Amino acid sequence: RMHTNPSRGPYHFRAPSRIFWRTVRGMLPHKTKRGQAALERLKVFDGIPPPYDKRKRMVVPAALKIVRLKPTRKFALLGRLAHEVGWK
User: Fold this and answer.
1) Measured between alpha carbons, how far is 18 from 69 in angstroms, rounded to an integer?
2) Pfam families given for it (predicted)?
3) Which end of the chain has fewer beta carbons closer than 10 Å to its terminal beta carbon, N or C?
4) Is the pTM of this model over 0.70?
């Protein structure tokens, strides 16, 4: 039983870019000027927008899953999570 109306919020983002943005916001002191300035510098996109689609893509070897994670470690894919919460 609920004592609140779920249509009044809090609303959850469905797009992977917004889920990631909200996750990063939770790691920053977003209620301070310094945190707000850091959030304004963060750019997140779904796909590759026009200014960046012509640039050469690169792989960061130090960030690869096989290098960073232990074989037994559990992980989640952001696209799968977004699809489960209603992203098309």
Assistant:
1) 25
2) Ribosomal_L13
3) N
4) yes
